[in-house]
Design the sequence.
């Protein structure tokens, strides 16, 4: 058997033996004797009686092993024109001291801490400080509006909120304090304290229960690591589901640490001392796993980049960083390369830099579309690896695995299942689909270490969202197929989740926001194709009687409403007012038909439709508004 097949089969046939071996990759305070067990819902739990501390494994341990003077973080912030190198020893001191400061504020093991920060070293410090105390962090992405922050504060009920005075976005200072104040005013939960890191770009006035980061730290003594059980939660990370309420994905400690340590070698082909550059944000799972935790667990240096792929100052920023820090592996979303390609199609910026240190390029967050794959493949001398994963899994489900056995790449495919993930494609009846047959992509239980262990405070939702559709399998929500060689092709979501610029968003949540406007009788939000961002949301709205005049005003109000409620990251910029929406006789809006119309595809009229002429009306409105490729659509059949 070839190395990949051998490793993969061992991981599926003998998961306990396989993961017991991988568990040796991390330093334990008490090594586990139980490798795999099941909770009362029959969900896998890994390393339940082992004890460790993730901050110890990533920082204290490496300093003890002689990596103290190696760079842990290269902070590169073109938006503030700052570059800083922070060694493992320096980072450990900063983390231990901030952990001491949190302790002074009463934070203990199991308490939640919400972190609302941009891409600055203090964000990493705050995350590790929580891990050091056994507190559970929940990082919220800076592009979310107060309402979203409020929902997360309400759900996680943090003892402390840690924030910065501002983010810097598209050349503008975005003050965070007003966002936090509005969020706290909307949330019934009141944290004991809010710690704010004041950045030079934006000062703040401190109110009661608000503390200046620097003052707190200057008065704090370093805190020791608190031992936690393997199954104790490390963090909650909220992600979009099909409804307005985001899901708090719970990640355990030891399973995650072992999975990340394994992936650093098997997938990212990195050795301790190498440099990993992941251009994402600490607010997303990619940032948690491969900016903050994975690289440092493995003794690598990580690049923390505060900027965009383009216009900071030009389309050469990524290439500059690869040269400057001698980056070994680089990871970002395909949309970032589409932005670079749009700005610099001939890649002339690349000619200025020596990127010979780079061995592999990785992309995820959305499907790597074949044109972008070919552009990159022609441009670079290194393998371009598309790999597929989700907030829920915490690390890749399918990938090319150069650390085990490099495989030929196929455009549009995330290559093969990663060891530990028993990936299958099921048809509607729950039967295994054959090669090239598209169906629901599922993962047979037990899920490997690192995957979600629950939805915070909502065990029922964990079951209904992921486990109920096909008993014994985790439902990924993605559709796809295997080809004859066992390559996996992920073709897109099968639910109401869309992917905009590598960010996961819920159309259901947007519909709730639109439906809350007093003038809206009915609405549907669909994702339409966009060359740069992959997908963009579009709202189709039927106004109530009496609100049909001035559709432009209503459209503008609805766009503003989504931006103010969900945030600019929703990229919600198009609304069409229509008289009717195509529905079934039982009143269900035919969303797939709407998506196909917007994408210029031929549509068939289902026999269950209530009023076939509504399709023509909507199509006409889409063409007038130049939505997607609607004007290319052939006449409706
Ligand atoms: N704080 C406040 N606002 C933010 C923000 C933040 N942290 N991040 C984004 N926004 C705003 C943007 O300024 C933009 O506002 P606008 O509507 O006023 O223009 C809006 O949210 C949409 O942002 P985005 O979709 O990111 O568009 P963009 O034009 O700024 O950038 C890309 C486009 C492709 C360059 C960018 O999305 C990108 O680099 N994506 C990579 C995706 C990624 O990291 N995915 C994680 C998984 S790997
Ligand atoms: P998130 O949880 O935000 O990381 O989004 C996860 C979703 O993004 C997946 O369910 C997929 O729909 C999509 N996705 C992520 N990576 C890929 C990929 N490499 N190929 C196809 N879709 C992807």
Sequence:
């Amino acid at each position: 058997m070839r190395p990949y097949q051998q490793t993969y089969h061992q991981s599926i046939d003998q998961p306990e033996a396989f993961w017991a071996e991988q568990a040796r990759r991390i330093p334990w305070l008490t090594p586990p004797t139980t490798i795999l067990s099941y909770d009362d819902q029959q969900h896998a739990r890994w390393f339940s009686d082992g004890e460790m501390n993730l901050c110890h494994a990533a920082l204290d341990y490496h300093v003890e092993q002689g990596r103290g003077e190696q760079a842990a973080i290269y902070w590169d912030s073109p938006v503030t024109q700052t570059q800083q190198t922070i060694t493992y020893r320096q980072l450990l001191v900063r983390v231990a001291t901030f952990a001491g400061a949190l302790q002074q504020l009463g934070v203990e093991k199991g308490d939640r801490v919400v972190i609302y920060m941009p891409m600055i070293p203090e964000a990493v410090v705050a995350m590790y400080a929580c891990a050091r105390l056994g507190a559970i962090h929940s990082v919220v992405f800076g592009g979310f509006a107060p309402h979203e922050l409020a929902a997360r504060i309400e759900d996680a009920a943090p003892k402390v909120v840690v924030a910065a005075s501002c983010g810097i976005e598209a050349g503008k200072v975005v003050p965070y304090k007003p966002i936090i104040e509005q969020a706290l005013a909307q949330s019934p939960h009141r944290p004991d304290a809010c710690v704010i890191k004041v950045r030079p770009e934006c000062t703040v006035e401190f109110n009661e229960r608000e503390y200046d980061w620097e003052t707190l730290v200057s008065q704090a003594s370093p805190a020791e690591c608190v031992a936690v059980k393997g199954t104790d939660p490390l963090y909650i990370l909220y992600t979009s589901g099909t409804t307005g309420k985001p899901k708090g994905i719970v990640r355990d400690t030891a399973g995650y640490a072992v999975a990340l340590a394994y992936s650093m070698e098997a997938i990212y082909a990195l050795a301790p001392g190498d440099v990993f550059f992941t251009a994402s944000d600490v607010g997303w799972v990619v940032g948690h796993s491969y900016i903050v935790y994975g690289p440092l667990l493995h003794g690598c240096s990580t690049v923390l980049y505060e900027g965009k792929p383009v216009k900071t100052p030009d389309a050469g920023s990524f290439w500059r960083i690869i040269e400057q820090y001698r980056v070994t592996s680089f990871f970002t979303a395909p949309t970032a390369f589409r932005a670079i390609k749009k700005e610099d199609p001939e890649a002339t910026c690349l000619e200025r830099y020596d990127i010979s240190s780079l061995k592999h390029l990785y992309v995820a967050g959305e499907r790597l579309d074949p044109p972008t794959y070919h552009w990159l493949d022609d441009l670079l001398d290194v393998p371009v690896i598309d790999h597929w994963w989700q907030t829920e899994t915490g690390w890749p489900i399918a990938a090319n695995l150069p650390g085990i056995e490099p495989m030929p790449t196929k455009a549009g495919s995330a290559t093969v299942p990663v060891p530990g993930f028993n990936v299958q494609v099921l048809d509607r009846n729950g039967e295994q689909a054959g090669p090239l047959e598209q169906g629901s992509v599922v993962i047979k239980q037990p899920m490997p270490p690192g995957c979600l262990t629950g939805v915070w405070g909502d065990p029922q939702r964990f079951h209904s969202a992921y486990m109920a559709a096909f008993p014994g399998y985790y439902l990924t929500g993605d559709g796809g197929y295997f080809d004859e060689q066992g390559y996996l092709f992920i073709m897109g979501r099968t639910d109401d989740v869309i992917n905009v610029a590598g960010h996961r968003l819920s159309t259901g949540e947007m519909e709730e926001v639109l439906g809350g406007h007093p003038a809206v009788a009915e609405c549907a939000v669909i994702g339409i194709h966009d060359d740069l961002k992959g997908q963009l949301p579009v709202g189709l709205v039927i106004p109530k009687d009496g609100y049909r005049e001035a559709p432009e005003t209503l459209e503008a109000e609805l766009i503003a409403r989504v931006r103010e409620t969900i945030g600019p990251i929703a990229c919600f910029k198009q609304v069409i007012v229509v008289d009717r929406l195509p529905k079934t006789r039982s009143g269900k809006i035919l969303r797939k038909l709407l998506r196909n119309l917007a994408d210029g595809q031929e549509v068939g009229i289902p026999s269950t439709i209530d009023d076939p002429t509504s399709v023509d009306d909507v199509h006409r409105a889409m063409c007038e508004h130049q939505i997607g490729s609607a004007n290319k659509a052939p006449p409706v059949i």
